[in-house]
Automatic annotation (TrEMBL):
The Peptidase M1 alanyl aminopeptidase C-terminal domain, residue ranges: 548-876
Name this protein carries in UniProt: Aminopeptidase N
Highest taxon in the source lineage: Bacteria
Peptidase M1 membrane alanine aminopeptidase domain sequence ranges: 226-439
Source organism: Desulfobulbus propionicus (strain ATCC 33891 / DSM 2032 / VKM B-1956 / 1pr3)
Keyword terms, alphabetized: Aminopeptidase, Hydrolase, Metal-binding, Metalloprotease, Protease, Zinc
Length: 876
C-alpha cells in the first residue's frame, strides 16, 4: 500500500507522556507501556484510537486501569484499534513481547554482538511497543530498563538517569527521563557489556556537558578521534549557527551491526562502529574524515531534526538535507573548502544524477512511498543539501543565518514541513520563494544549454541559457526551476575579468528563472573564456561548448577551484569518450598529449593543496563517463579508463616517481587534512605507476614498490593503498599479501571489511568466482550489513567491468544475493538492488538479462515491501 503526502491528516490523539518498562530477554523481552493520551483538538470528529504495532505479541491492553476484553479492541495488520475511548484525557496500558535475538532486520530492538540496541527511524518503534508511530506525535519519555546485571551492566536510554538499583534476582534496572518531547523515532535503548570513554565540553554559556562514548572493551583505545570530532562539532555549531547543546550528557554507542551510518536519537546516538572507531593502524584518512563528518552530522541533528522535527516522512529532507548541508560546511572548515566541494559535487554528479534519471527518481519531497526506508536517498540527503546551499548562495551568508535563526525561533519544539523552512528563509530575505520550491516537487536533473555571443565592437557578452528537465514519474512537464548561476570570465592570459554587478568583482551570480533567459555582460574588453557554474552553484547538467584551449586556460588559471578541477575533468572526459568510440571499433587506445601535459603540470605544482591535486589527477569516474553515453558500455569504459591509467603511468613515469619520493611524510602517522592530502597524492602517483597495461606486464620493480610500501607502512592509509595497487596489478603477489593481511587483521571486523572490499573490487579476471567463494568464508556473514556492503555491493555497484559481464553472470549473482538477503534484512536487500534499477541504460542484451533478474526477484513468494517497491518501480 502506497502512502501519499496529499492525504496527510493531523493525528486524532496526542500522547503527552509515555512510561516504558522494558524487561530484557534475548527471545522474550517484555515491554510495558503507559500512554497518557488526549484527543487532538485539531480533529473535530470523534475517532477511534489507532496505535501501530508490528512483529510483536500483544499480551494485555487496559484503558484507564481496566483490562479490555477481546471485543473491546482489535489487533491485526499492524494496528491496535480501540473503538471507544473517553472524550477527555485517558490512559492506555499495553504489555507486549518481542524477540530481539530473532531480529535480523536490525529495525526496532535487536542484539548486536550480544548487546541490545535499537533503530527506530523511520518506523521501527512500532516493533517495540504499540504507539502512534508518526513524527508529529511528540511525547515526554520515561524509560525503565531491566536487565541481567552480569551480561548487561550498562543500561541506557535518552535523557537523564533519574533512578537505578539492584533487583536482587541477578537483575538490575535504570530509569531514564528525557525532558524534551520527541517523536518515537528518536527513542533509543542500549544495554550490554560496554566500556565508557568520557570527556567534557563547556558550552559558550558555561554549562559543562559530559560526553560519553560506549564501546566493547576491545575497542576502548579507538575512540579518541571520535571524541575530538564531537567536541569540534559542538564548538562549530555555536560559532557558525549559534546553537548550544541542551541536555547535560551526550552519549554515543558504537555497534557493529547497523543498517546505515548512524542515528541521532536524542542524547543517545547509536553508530555503526565504522563511524566511531579509528587508530592509525586500522583506519584510513578517508575513515578519519568520515568519522568526523558523521559524528558532526548526528550532533547537528539535535537542532535540525530533534528540537525541530518533521511533520511526516515526506518532509525527511527538512532534517536530512539541512543537516547534510551543515555537516558539509563543518567538514569544509575542518579540511579544505574547495576539496570538500569537489567531493560533494562528485557524489551528486556520479550518483544522484543517476538516481534522478532512473526508475527510483523522486523529488526532494517525495509525493508518495510504499516503504519509507527506500527514500533515505542521495536525492533526499544530498540533492536536499544542494537545495539548501542554493538558498545560501541566493540569500548570502548573513541573510541565510537570519533565516536559520528565524526558523529556530518559530519552530522550536514543533514537527514542521519543508514549506515552513522555506517560509523562514523567504521572510528573512524579503523575497518570494514560491518558484524556488519547485526543487521540492519536481524530480529530475535540469539540463542547461548555454550559448555565448561576444561582440567585440560593443564590448558585450550575451549568455543565453536555456533549461529543460526530462520527465519523471511525478511530472511529465516540468516548470522552470529558479537557481543561482555563479559565472566568471577569464581573458586569454587567464586573468579574471572585472564584472559589473559582481559582489567580489569577478564572480557574478545570475538568477535563472525562465525556460530561456539572456544575460548581458558589458564592458568586456576581449573574447572571454567562460567559467560557468562556479563552485557547482546549482545541481544541474551544463552543455557549453568549450575548446581544449579554453579548458586549458581554466585548468591553469580559474580562481574558482571547483571549475579549475572541473575543466580538467572535462578535458579527460572528452578524450576518454573519443577513445571509447575507437576502442568499440577495435582501434588501440591512445592518450592525447594535451592531457599528459595537464597531468604533468599538476605533478610539478608545488603551490596547490595536495588534496586538491590528488583529485585533479584522478580521471573522471566510470559512473560519470557512463552518464555521458547514450548506451552505457561498462566493459569498454573500464577497459579504456584502465588503459589510460597504464599509458599515463608509462608516459609520466619519471614525474610520478619523483612525486612519489618527494611527497614522503617524515615521522609517524598523524591525521591532518594536509598530511591526508599528501598521502592521497602520493598514493595517486603509486596507483598510476602500478596501473597494469591491458595486454602486457607491469615492470616488476614497480610492483615491488607497492609490496614494499605495504610491508613497511605504519598506517592503514598507506598499507591499503599499496595493497590495492598490488591486488589489481598481479594476482599471485596480491593473493599472497591478502593472506598476510587477513592473518594480521582477522580479529578486527572493520579491517576485515577492507579485506573484502579489495577482493570484490579486484579488476583482474575471475573476481566473481572469488567473491562467491568468499560468501562462505568464516570472516563473512550475511547478518552484518558492513560485510554485505563490502563484498556484495562492492562487486555489484563498483566493479563495473566484471559485474556487467556480457554473459549475465554478475546479474545472476546479484539476483541470488537479493533473494537470499530479503528474508533476513529487507532494507539491505533493497539497497543491493540499485545496480539493476539502471537496466534501461545498457544495450539490448544486457537490458534483457538485467530485467530477467528483476522479474525473477519480483516473482519470489513473500517479498518484502522494500524490495517489491524497487522491483515494481524498475519494471513499470
Ligand atoms: N537519521 C539517520 C541519519 O541521517 C539515518 C537513519 C535512517 N535509518 C533507516 N533505517 N532508514 O543520520
Ligand atoms: Zn541525518
Amino acid at each position: 500500500k502506497e502512502t501519499f503526502l496529499k492525504e496527510y491528516t493531523p493525528p486524532a490523539y496526542l500522547v503527552d507522556r509515555l512510561d516504558l518498562r522494558v524487561e530484557l530477554d534475548p527471545q522474550a523481552t517484555r515491554v510495558r507501556a503507559t500512554l497518557r493520551c488526549r484527543p487532538n483538538t485539531n480533529t473535530p470528529v470523534k475517532q477511534p484510537l489507532v496505535l501501530n504495532g508490528e512483529q510483536l505479541e500483544l499480551v494485555r491492553v487496559a484503558l484507564d486501569g481496566v483490562e479490555l476484553s477481546a471485543t473491546e479492541f482489535h489487533f491485526g495488520d499492524g494496528l491496535l484499534t480501540i473503538a471507544q475511548v473517553p472524550d477527555g484525557p485517558f490512559m492506555v496500558e499495553t504489555e507486549t513481547r518481542i524477540n530481539p535475538a530473532g531480529n535480523t532486520a536490525l529495525e526496532g530492538l535487536y542484539l548486536s554482538s550480544g548487546n541490545y540496541c535499537t533503530q527506530c527511524e523511520a518506523e521501527g518503534f512500532r516493533t517495540i511497543t504499540c504507539f502512534p508511530d508518526r513524527p508529529d506525535v511528540m511525547t515526554v519519555f520515561t524509560t525503565t530498563i531491566v536487565g541481567d546485571t552480569a551480561s548487561c551492566p550498562v543500561l541506557l536510554s535518552n535523557g537523564n538517569l533519574i533512578d537505578s538499583g539492584d533487583l536482587g534476582d541477578g537483575r538490575h534496572y535504570a530509569t531514564w527521563h528525557d525532558p524534551f518531547p520527541k517523536p518515537c523515532y528518536l527513542f533509543a535503548l542500549v544495554a550490554g557489556d560496554l566500556v565508557r570513554i568520557s570527556d567534557t565540553f563547556t558550552t559558550r554559556s558555561g554549562r559543562q556537558i559530559d560526553l560519553h562514548i560506549y564501546v566493547e572493551e576491545r575497542n576502548r583505545n579507538k575512540c579518541d578521534h571520535a571524541m575530538r570530532a564531537l567536541q569540534k562539532a559542538m564548538r562549530w555549531d555555536e560559532l557558525r549557527f549559534g546553537r548550544e547543546y541542551d541536555l547535560d550528557t551526550y552519549m554515543i554507542v558504537a555497534v557493529d551491526d547497523f543498517n546505515m551510518g548512524a542515528m541521532e536519537n536524542k542524547g543517545l546516538n547509536v553508530f555503526n562502529s565504522k563511524y566511531v572507531l579509528a587508530l592509525p593502524e586500522t583506519a584510513t584518512d578517508t575513515d578519519y574524515e568520515g568519522i568526523e563528518g558523521v559524528i558532526a552530522h548526528e550532533y547537528f541533528h539535535n537542532w535540525t531534526g530533534n528540537r525541530i522535527t518533521c511533520r511526516d516522512w515526506f518532509q525527511l529532507s527538512l532534517k536530512e538535507g539541512l543537516t547534510v548541508f551543515r555537516d558539509q560546511e563543518f567538514t569544509a572548515d575542518m579540511i579544505s573548502r574547495p576539496v570538500k566541494r569537489i567531493q560533494d559535487a562528485n557524489i551528486i554528479r556520479s550518483f544522484q544524477f543517476r538516481e534522478d534519471s532512473g526508475p527510483m527518481a523522486h523529488p526532494v519531497r517525495p509525493p508518495s512511498f510504499v516503504e519509507i526506508n527506500n527514500f533515505y536517498t542521495l536525492t533526499v540527503y544530498n540533492k536536499g543539501a544542494e537545495v539548501i546551499r542554493m538558498l545560501h548562495t541566493l540569500l548570502g551568508p548573513e541573510t541565510f543565518r537570519r533565516g536559520m535563526d528565524l526558523y529556530f525561533e518559530r519552530h522550536d519544539g514543533q514537527a514542521v514541513t519543508c514549506d515552513d523552512f522555506v517560509a523562514a528563509m523567504a521572510d528573512a530575505w524579503g523575497k518570494d520563494l514560491t518558484q524556488f520550491k519547485r526543487w521540492y516537487s519536481q524530480a529530475g536533473t535540469p539540463e542547461l544549454t548555454v550559448r555565448a555571443d561576444y561582440d567585440p565592437a560593443a564590448r558585450q557578452l550575451i549568455l543565453t541559457v536555456e533549461q529543460t528537465c526530462p520527465p519523471t514519474r511525478e511530472s511529465a512537464e516540468k516548470l522552470p526551476f529558479f537557481m543561482p548561476l555563479a559565472v566568471g570570465l577569464l581573458d586569454a592570459q587567464g586573468r579574471a575579468m572585472p564584472l559589473e554587478n559582481a559582489p567580489d568583482a569577478t564572480t557574478r551570480v545570475l538568477i535563472l528563472s525562465e525556460a530561456k533567459q539572456r544575460f548581458e555582460f558589458t564592458n568586456i574588453a576581449s573574447t572571454p573564456t567562460i567559467s560557468f557554474l562556479r563552485n557547482f552553484s546549482a545541481p544541474v547538467k551544463v552543455r557549453l561548448d568549450q575548446s581544449d584551449e579554453e579548458l586549458g586556460v581554466l585548468m591553469a588559471h580559474d580562481p574558482d577551484p571547483f571549475n579549475r578541477w572541473d575543466a580538467g575533468q572535462k578535458l579527460g572526459l572528452h578524450h576518454l569518450l573519443a577513445q571509447i568510440e575507437r576502442h568499440q571499433q577495435g582501434q588501440p587506445v591512445q592518450v592525447d598529449d594535451r592531457l599528459l601535459h595537464g597531468l604533468r603540470n599538476l605533478l610539478l605544482d608545488r603551490d596547490s593543496d595536495p588534496a586538491f591535486l590528488a583529485m585533479a589527477m584522478a580521471l573522471p569516474s566510470e559512473n560519470w563517463i557512463g552518464q555521458q553515453m547514450e548506451v552505457v558500455d561498462p566493459v569498454a569504459i573500464f577497459a579504456v579508463r584502465q588503459q589510460f591509467r597504464a599509458l599515463i603511468g608509462q608516459a609520466l613515469r619519471s614525474e610520478l616517481l619523483q612525486g612519489y619520493e618527494t611527497l614522503r611524510i617524515p615521522g609517524p602517522y598523524r591525521y591532518s587534512a594536509l598530511d591526508a592530502g599528501k598521502r592521497a597524492l602520493r598514493n595517486g602517483c603509486l596507483a598510476y605507476l602500478l596501473a597494469p597495461p591491458l595486454d602486457g606486464v607491469l615492470d616488476p620493480c614497480l610492483l615491488h614498490k607497492g609490496v614494499h610500501q605495504y610491508r613497511h607502512a605504519d598506517n592503514m592509509t598507506d598499507a591499503i593503498a599499496a595493497l590495492s595497487c598490488v591486488v589489481n596489478a598481479d594476482l599471485a603477489t596480491g593473493t599472497e599479501l591478502l593472506a598476510d593481511f587477513h592473518a594480521q587483521w582477522q580479529h578486527d571486523p572493520l579491517v576485515v571489511d577492507k579485506w573484502l572490499i579489495l577482493q570484490a573490487g579486484c579488476t583482474l579476471p575471475g573476481t566473481l568466482d572469488r567473491v562467491k567463494a568468499l560468501t562462505t568464508h568464516p570472516s563473512f556473514t550475511y547478518k552484518n550489513p558492513n560485510k554485505v556492503r563490502s563484498l556484495i555491493a562492492t562487486f555489484c555497484a563498483t566493479n563495473h567491468g566484471q559485474f556487467h559481464a556480457a554473459d549475465g553472470s554478475g546479474y545472476d549473482f546479484l539476483g541470488d544475493q537479493v533473494c537470499l538477503l530479503d528474508p533476513l534484512n529487507p532494507q539491505i536487500a533493497a539497497r543491493m538492488l540499485t545496480p539493476l534499477t539502471q537496466w534501461r541504460r545498457y544495450d539490448a542484451g544486457r537490458q534483457q538479462l538485467m530485467r530477467a533478474q528483476l522479474e525473477r526477484i519480483g516473482s519470489q513468494r513473500s517479498l518484502s515491501d522494500d524490495v517489491k517497491e524497487v522491483v515494481e518501480r524498475s519494471l513499470h
